[in-house]
Amino acid sequence: MSRITTDFERQRKQMVAGQIRSRGLCDTLVLAAMENVPREAFVPEQYRFMAYDDGPLPIGEGQTISQPYMVAFMVEALALKGGETVLEIGAGSGYAAAVLAEIAEEVYAVERIGALAGLAARNLAETGYDNVHVSHADGTRGLEAHAPYDAILVSAGAPDVPETLKGQLAAGGRIVLPVGSDRRSQSLVRITKTASGEFEREVLADVRFVPLIGAEGWDELSWPRTFW
Ligand code: SAH
Which residues of the chain, if any, have pLDDT below 70? Predict the structure, then answer.
């Protein structure tokens, strides 16, 4: 029987082998998710030919779709087994939410920029991820309606771990987020809530994300500050 393979499928397999597996990520659920999500459907038309490049790409409104390796790294750090309820803060294009939705049962994705919340919802509907629910809101306040969450992924850099997100985490759950006192560079941190309700903190990597802006994030007025 012949197999029809599109060029994007071939590029996607190469991306998983050459950018993700080769750098040591090995969670089979994450690797399978990265092989299934059509990244080309989440990048703007004019960048589609770069959809499987090893870096972030612009998605409008001054925001970016993260590098594929970074998405895989963060999702692996969440240690999902399947069946979870997951919250993502910073839906952007919807790509990371789609990767989460390949593994988890339900994904709630929050985005503060209305145009991007619409973009994420459209991209996810077109690719058939009907277990992702996008809201337009300040995600530093989490999403109380569906809490607690087994895992929370924050896709933008926070000055500190938002207390509200810790409060919406289930016992045994994990938050993975970039944290740093500099708006443009952070440490990727994993917070684990123990069975007794304590929080453990691990630093996983040095990363660079766009800022998390909101009540428990950075102040909008002071970004971007380009007077010099
Ligand atoms: N996960 C996205 C990456 C988007 S970049 C993807 O796969 O495409 C980070 C996003 O976080 C931006 O879209 C930005 O608007 C959003 N963001 C920043 N602060 C936020 C907040 N307080 N609540 C929700 N989204 C926020």
Answer: 1-5, 221-228
Q: Which residue has the tokens 């895989």?
A: 72
66 is catalytic: yes
Integer CA distances (angstroms), 79 to 85, 95, 103, in order: 13, 18, 10
- Ligand 1 mean position, distance from CA 6 (Å): 30
**CA 42 → CA 26, 135, 161, 185, distances in Å?**
24, 17, 28, 24
Say which DSSP state 145 is in: G
3-class DSSP assignment, residue 211:
strand
Note the CATH number of domain 3-222: 3.40.50.150
- Nearest CA to 9 out of 41, 54, 43, 44 is that of 41
Spans of all domains in the chain: 3-222
**Whole-structure pTM value:** 0.95
